[in-house]
């Protein structure tokens, strides 16, 4: 066990979060959405900490020892393990949405291709799809759901800044794509985050098909 927990976090709580992350990751890997160790997953543990995948692990084969604790600045807590290279994007979600409990990031083929195709528009504009209602806050297919596509970079502060700029402009945000990379989405629990991820995978696939057939 590499993880020493602060006194305020019961071992059972951390274990439950780690198991929930590993279970979700295994299922998403089976769907083919986490190729070649890509993707990362996290869950809030308390107001000041999140459990997140250790960098570079095979997301289809995670166990409790592949999950670690970070603070809300993305720094490791109680372990020498290296958190996901994209930890800053997770902790940003927890800071900006106090109700967010889960952040999911995957690299499916559909997400990757859609991010390249729509990068020039800066966003994917979803309208007219019944499945938009799977995104919390959307009650009709007539609503518009805009998923921004941010340029890829290995420098996380740059991405954090782009997300902050989008939110500070007052635009709604349920998820975002990173060009040539993948998707980030989140939820108030694992079920909501999974529903968002699955709906967006489906909707992006539909948008790609529309372009292929027209
Ligand atoms: C294996 S390439 C993908 C990585 O560069 C990254 O984008 C990713 O999703 C996984 O990084 P990780 O540090 O394991 O969380
Ligand atoms: Zn990634």
Describe this structure in words.
It is a single chain. This protein has helices spanning 11-30, 87-96, 109-118, 156-168, 190-213, and strands at 40-46, 49-53, 67-71, 102-106, 123-127, 144-150, 175-178, 182-187. It is of the alpha+beta class and 214 residues long. The protein has an 8-stranded mixed sheet, sandwiched between helices. Helix 3 crosses helix 5 (190-213). The relative contact order is 0.14. The mean pLDDT is 98. Bound molecules: 5-S-methyl-1-O-phosphono-5-thio-D-ribulose and zinc ion (ZN). Zinc ion is lined by residues 38, 86, 105, 107, 181-182. 5-S-methyl-1-O-phosphono-5-thio-D-ribulose is lined by residues 36-40, 53, 55-56, 84-86, 105, 107.
What distinguishing features does this structure have?
Aldolase_II/adducin_N; alpha+beta; globular; single chain; 214 residues; metal-binding; Methylthioribulose-1-phosphate dehydratase; L-fuculose-1-phosphate Aldolase; binds 5-S-methyl-1-O-phosphono-5-thio-D-ribulose; methionine biosynthesis; Aldolase_II/adducin_N_sf; binds zinc ion; 5 helices; 8-stranded mixed beta sheet
Low-pLDDT residue intervals, each spanning 5 or more residues: none
> How much strand content do the residues show?
15-25%
- What is the level-2 CATH architecture name? 3-Layer(aba) Sandwich
CATH superfamily: Class II aldolase/adducin N-terminal domain
**Total count of helical runs of at least 4 residues:** 5
Average pLDDT figure: 98
Number of strands: 8
Domains (count) = 1
What is the percent of helical residues? 25-40%
Distance between the ends: 54 Å
Structural class: alpha+beta
Rg (C-alpha, Å): 17 Å
CATH fold title: L-fuculose-1-phosphate Aldolase
Q: Which hetero compounds are present in the coordinates?
A: 5-S-methyl-1-O-phosphono-5-thio-D-ribulose, zinc ion
Order of helices and strands: HEEEHEHEEHEEH
Function: Catalyzes the dehydration of methylthioribulose-1-phosphate (MTRu-1-P) into 2,3-diketo-5-methylthiopentyl-1-phosphate (DK-MTP-1-P).
InterPro entries: Aldolase_II/adducin_N, Aldolase_II/adducin_N_sf, MethylthioRu-1-P_deHdtase_MtnB
EC number: 4.2.1.109
Pfam families: Aldolase_II (PF00596)
């Amino acid at each position: 066990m590499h993880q020493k927990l602060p006194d305020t976090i019961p071992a059972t709580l951390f274990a439950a979060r780690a198991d929930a992350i590993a279970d979700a990751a295994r299922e998403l890997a089976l769907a083919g959405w986490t190729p070649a160790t890509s993707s990362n997953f996290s869950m809030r543990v308390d107001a000041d900490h999140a459990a997140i995948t250790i960098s570079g692990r095979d997301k289809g084969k995670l166990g409790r020892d592949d999950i670690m604790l970070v603070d809300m600045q993305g720094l490791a807590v109680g372990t020498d393990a290296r958190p996901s290279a994209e930890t800053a994007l997770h902790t940003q979600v927890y800071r900006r949405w106090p109700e967010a409990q889960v952040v999911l990031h995957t690299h499916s083929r559909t997400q990757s291709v859609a991010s390249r195709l729509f990068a020039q528009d800066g966003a994917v504009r979803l309208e007219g799809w019944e499945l938009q209602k799977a995104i919390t806050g959307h009650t009709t297919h007539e609503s518009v759901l805009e998923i921004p596509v941010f340029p890829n970079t290995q420098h996380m502060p740059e991405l954090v800044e782009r997300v902050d700029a989008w939110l500070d402009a007052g635009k709604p945000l349920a998820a975002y794509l990173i060009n040539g990379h993948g998707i980030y989405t989140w939820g108030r629990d694992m079920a909501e985050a999974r529903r968002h991820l699955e709906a967006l995978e489906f909707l992006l696939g539909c948008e790609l098909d529309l372009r292929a057939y027209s």
